[in-house]
Amino acid sequence: MTDDILLCDIDGRGVATVTLNRPDIHNAFSVALIEQLARVFARLDADDTVRVVIVTGAGKSFSAGADLNAMKQAATLAPERNLAQARDAAGMFHALNTLRHPTVARVNGSAFAGGVGLIACCDVALAADHAQFAVTEARIGLMPSTISPYLLAAMGPRAARRYWLTAERFDAHEAARIGLVHAVAAAGQLDGLVDTVVGDLLLGAPGAIAACKSLAQALHGPVTAEIRERTAQGIARIRASDEGREGLAAFLEKRPPSWQNGAES
């Protein structure tokens, strides 16, 4: 499959590479991109010829997360449509997290907000050493709702309580220290690291790998339908709130939001 905003290529080994292809806006999620990602993950999950799925971004960034113009528009929709879009996002992350094939995040550049969520949903995360990360939602009056179960599992509660609240940027080595990524590659060496890990995954029996993945998730605790619904309702509610509307407007207008008066941004 090839189109303007999402690429999916499968090589002769059964390795599928899913590439977010909006490099001009740092591979930000639109409603259409979320829908296409969900469809692609479902198709790959059902394909017995697929052995490994790599998720990456085109250009210099992995993903900046939600397209804030789309988020601002969602906040003005009727509540049921706003919630439906949030549910679609929650479903897309769930589809990646529960994909039966092993998944590898090839973090070619910076990842923010929902982009960090994509990384947390993958089984293995490998990052270029120049990548920057941030869970930015609080700065614009939102919260990392639909990605929160996956972030918490990857980062742990202590790091989450710092980085979700401060929304500060951190580098790839800090991402590795807190468990968000597994390994960091120096410039020009990311593809070699990805190839090594993919080679290791291809040595395993597909059924056994799927069983191991299911076991690890079951022991940790599944992201249930109730949790997904709670997170979808949470983001739908907060982006339509006064703070959410102000934060999104301020970001898009390149000005400080009202709550930053007298504070450094």
Residue runs with pLDDT of under 50 for 5 or more positions = none
Cα-atom radius of gyration: 18 Å
Order of helices and strands: EEHEHHEEHEEHHEHEHHHH
State mean pLDDT (0 to 100 scale). 93
How many strands, what sense, and barrel or not for the largest sheet?
Answer: 6 strands, mixed
Strand content: 5-15%
* Strand arrangement across the biggest beta sheet: 1-2-3-4-6-9
Give me the number of helical elements: 11
Known CATH architecture of the domain at 6-187: Alpha-Beta Complex
Provide a brief overview of the structure.
49% of the residues lie in helices and 14% in strands. By secondary structure, the chain is an alpha/beta fold.
Characterization of this structure:
By secondary structure, the chain is an alpha/beta fold. The chain has a domain at 6-187: 2-enoyl-CoA Hydratase, Chain A, domain 1 (Alpha-Beta Complex). 49% of the residues lie in helices and 14% in strands. The chain is built from eleven helices and nine strands. The protein has helices spanning 31-46, 68-75, 79-97, 114-121, 148-155, 157-166, 172-177, 190-202, 206-220, 225-239, 242-252; strands at 6-10, 15-20, 52-57, 103-107, 111-112, 124-128, 132-134, 170-171, 183-185. The strands form two sheets. A six-stranded mixed β-sheet has the order 1-2-3-4-6-9, with helices on both faces. Strands 5-7-8 form a three-stranded mixed β-sheet. α1 runs parallel beside α3 (79-97) and α2 runs antiparallel to α11 (242-252). The mean pLDDT is 93.
